[in-house]
Specification:
about 220 residues, 2 domains, 6 helices
Length: about 220
């Protein structure tokens, strides 16, 4: 197949054509890629003997996808990892329509506490979970969430406070949007677990979460 034919197929969203073009261009750097498309999202994973340089690869992907002009693609999920690894060393999300770049820190990155206008020195459960969600695996998730839930029990609550509960499930692609939306609606996380589904090269995380939201009891009138 000629380079022209490959480019034409890549512009139509053919993932194998995109892989062939990128692998050929990245061969001198020892980087190979995996590409998948789901709905309006495109995921590209870079693998090499050493962790691919994030700034270089993200810039390369942005420019390459822009040239293909894939109209239906709104989000890029870019990952870098060592050959044979099941978990990325870094990940980055790009909203192509709003030109937003959301970088997820690696596991050794320092996590800053988030101050709110109404409650200073109080951790924002949702922001912490979003920062960790790409780098924590099933083994560590329970322990991290346990610490977060423990903090909730130490918050003093009015005696006339009760809770309503709901259960939600998210996959990796919509996790950020879903968790932040529920946070804005006043829901707080009380339990979650993460499981991996799919084959080795197409695995994705599924989160099952339980949320609660405070509501005041009606006072009994005598």
């Amino acid at each position: 197949m000629t380079a022209t034919n490959l480019l034409d197929q890549a512009k139509q969203g053919d993932t194998q054509a995109i892989v062939s073009l990128m692998n050929k261009a990245l061969e001198p750097k020892g980087i190979t890629v995996q590409v998948s498309i789901k709905n309006d999202s495109l995921t590209i994973t870079a693998e090499a003997k050493e962790v691919p340089e994030q700034s270089f690869f993200v810039d390369y992907v942005q420019k390459s996808i822009a040239k293909l002009n894939l109209a239906r693609i709104k989000f890029l999920y870019i990952r870098g990892q060592v050959n044979g690894s099941k978990f990325p060393a870094w990940r980055q999300t790009i909203n192509l329509k709003e030109h937003e770049v959301l970088a997820t820190p690696i596991i050794n990155a320092q996590i800053s506490s988030v101050n709110s206008k109404d409650k200073t020195n109080q951790f924002n459960i949702f922001n912490i979970l979003v920062q960790f969600r790409e780098v924590i695996n099933t083994v560590f998730l329970g322990g991290i969430l346990g610490i977060l839930v423990f903090n909730l029990w130490w918050q003093r609550q009015p005696k006339n406070l009760q809770y309503e509960y709901k259960i939600e499930s998210f996959d990796d692609i919509v996790f950020d949007i879903g968790i932040n939306k529920l946070g804005d609606e006043g829901w707080e996380l009380v339990f979650a677990r993460r499981a991996l589904t799919g084959e080795e090269y197409s695995r994705k995380g599924i989160y099952e979460c339980i949320f609660r939201r405070a509501k005041l009891k009606e006072s009994n009138q005598q």
